[in-house]
Amino acid sequence: MTYDIATIPGDGIGQTVVEAALPVLREAGDVYGFEFDVTAYDWGTERYREEGAMMPDDALEQLEPRDAILLGAVGHPDVPDHVTLHGLLLPIRKAFNQYVCKRPTVLYEGVESPLRGYDGGDIDFVVYRENTEGEYADIGGREHRGFDNDVAIQSALFTRQGVERIVRQAFRAASRRRGKLTNVTKSNAQAYGMVLWDDIVEEVATEFPDVTVERLLVDAASMDLVRRPEEFDVLVASNLFGDILTDIGAVISGSMGLAPSANVNPEGEYPSLFEPVHGSAPDIVGREIANPLATVLSGAMLLEHVGEPEAAAGVRDAVRAQLAAPAAPRTPDLGGEASTFEVARDVEARL
Amino acid sequence: MTYDIATIPGDGIGQTVVEAALPVLREAGDVYGFEFDVTAYDWGTERYREEGAMMPDDALEQLEPRDAILLGAVGHPDVPDHVTLHGLLLPIRKAFNQYVCKRPTVLYEGVESPLRGYDGGDIDFVVYRENTEGEYADIGGREHRGFDNDVAIQSALFTRQGVERIVRQAFRAASRRRGKLTNVTKSNAQAYGMVLWDDIVEEVATEFPDVTVERLLVDAASMDLVRRPEEFDVLVASNLFGDILTDIGAVISGSMGLAPSANVNPEGEYPSLFEPVHGSAPDIVGREIANPLATVLSGAMLLEHVGEPEAAAGVRDAVRAQLAAPAAPRTPDLGGEASTFEVARDVEARL
Ligand SMILES: CC(C)[C@H](C(=O)O)[C@@H](O)C(=O)O
Ligand SMILES: CC(C)[C@H](C(=O)O)[C@@H](O)C(=O)O
């Protein structure tokens, strides 16, 4: 079996972590009996500066036939974020209908959480984030710029289809896991979009009698991820709320450098995209100290998605074993002094 | 001097904490030489059930002449939140142009933060939250309810005047404090409202050359409040983002039961409202174990606002001394067994 994979290393440490993680995935192929055919795309801010666009006009056509996409990071301090993101990451999520953004938070053995009293194994939840509409919809405008009556409207869009499909995926995940779903909204203050969301959660819940549903407001949920993270199993949230909750998830799991993510089109009509939650980290760029594990773990999600669950588990076990081994190399974010490549090679060896 | 104060104890533990906190404020009056004329309003969910409205039609007229309002909490498990809130708290914030929601986070000596490695004195920041528009604007709608094309739009509104005034207040606070302002937006994904906000922060910054401005995206800010809370001084954020950040602030300061807040109309055209950040806590209602300190500290903010800064400092010092005293009474949220009233009386005695 050969998988046709696109990589978009992108900007900053994105390039380093993708370069380091790819050999781990290839090694998993050797061990579990498959191959990768990798096409690397040099899209990103450098290209934007030279050619005025983050990606070429036919970028989506080039990506569409691939089995999956592995992305490093996009963003550069000299270019406004809305340019880099609306020029690459966000259009891919939308065009390929990657409506599930799946982000697990696991506190691994051997990793110190910033939360007092939590040890490896204590935290294990996954956020299902809606990934194509909600607060990220490109609806709104601004008028009278610079004048006293300068005003902007930013509209969040919630469609039944858009909400129902992410909610159903989250319920499925909960019934495969520990049977608990936390629905995070802000219906007390946002009576249109969030109430539609809550209504649909109630409807879909009837299809999953084995799943217990908890409702939390986003402010309370943000607090509870710090106060009682062990009680969460699956959380489902809108695009913006999922963004916030998963960053809190990343920090409580000990390092942003350990948080993977998958932007999935579950029907497989389009390729899905896998990327670390962290950004391009301009502050440490070029030093080869970025933690490659978030990208390696995103690669494991990619393997699972293309149909290699054993290889995915193998990669995850190798990461788990490395983190649990006191003498194994660690990047500075985990208190070590190893380089990106040393850490990745050590995972490879453990496979 | 006599201050004309309205209290709205509201629902659940709101009633207990206001009842417990008032004598502390009266005692501060005795010590510092002023009096309170208190009018208590029994508005809330019980009234809603009996008379169909949380407050009477002329509620705002009744409140308007007061020097300040002390609120407990509103919300009841049997009544949808959007009813209780849009029927009382949110209309007061809007009608009285309480455009500054000021919420300090202080980790007091003697209180354990859930964050590893943080001790009393290590965390001290304040969030300036926009309190009248943004994501809480009542703009939007829903169509085709129940059909396949069911769709909802929820629009956030940002006006120059609305943003400029909160931003300016935040800059003022930063220049009185440690000179650092963190501006929290999500301009990379929300290119209308949040970009207007960022523009205005840049403009107003020119009036405050002594203040250093940091920009953070809301996801990163939520993470950083857990990862490096000691580095924050003043944060400024929209209505929704401020809501989320201040709940994270409350939890890292050791207990929701310690987090005060002020909804301020800085020009004094209308009364300002002071309330604990916590809600009506239906789970512990009637047991007299709610921590009164968030309300006592909100009362200190009230004293400061009406022009009694020494009395405010006195109340704060008494709370600080109580929390630092190992043998002093504590409510269960802080690991003790004392009642709401025991804790309040102990603060009173320390005055
Ligand atoms: C970069 C940004 C637009 C993006 C998002 O908000 O979705 C990022 O924070 C993420 O979580 O993938
Ligand atoms: C109750 C709710 C509407 C309110 C808000 O979101 O403003 C509360 O969470 C708060 O922070 O005061």
From TrEMBL, chains A, B:
<keyword id="KW-0464">Manganese</keyword>
<dbReference type="InterPro" id="IPR024084">
    <property type="entry name" value="IsoPropMal-DH-like_dom"/>
</dbReference>
<dbReference type="GO" id="GO:0051287">
    <property type="term" value="F:NAD binding"/>
</dbReference>
<keyword id="KW-0479">Metal-binding</keyword>
<feature type="domain" description="Isopropylmalate dehydrogenase-like">
    <location>
        <begin position="4"/>
        <end position="347"/>
    </location>
</feature>
<dbReference type="Pfam" id="PF00180">
    <property type="entry name" value="Iso_dh"/>
</dbReference>
<keyword id="KW-0520">NAD</keyword>
<protein>
    <submittedName>
        <fullName>Tartrate dehydrogenase/decarboxylase / D-malate dehydrogenase</fullName>
    </submittedName>
</protein>
<dbReference type="GO" id="GO:0016616">
    <property type="term" value="F:oxidoreductase activity, acting on the CH-OH group of donors, NAD or NADP as acceptor"/>
</dbReference>
<dbReference type="InterPro" id="IPR050501">
    <property type="entry name" value="ICDH/IPMDH"/>
</dbReference>
<dbReference type="GO" id="GO:0000287">
    <property type="term" value="F:magnesium ion binding"/>
</dbReference>
<keyword id="KW-0560">Oxidoreductase</keyword>
<dbReference type="InterPro" id="IPR019818">
    <property type="entry name" value="IsoCit/isopropylmalate_DH_CS"/>
</dbReference>
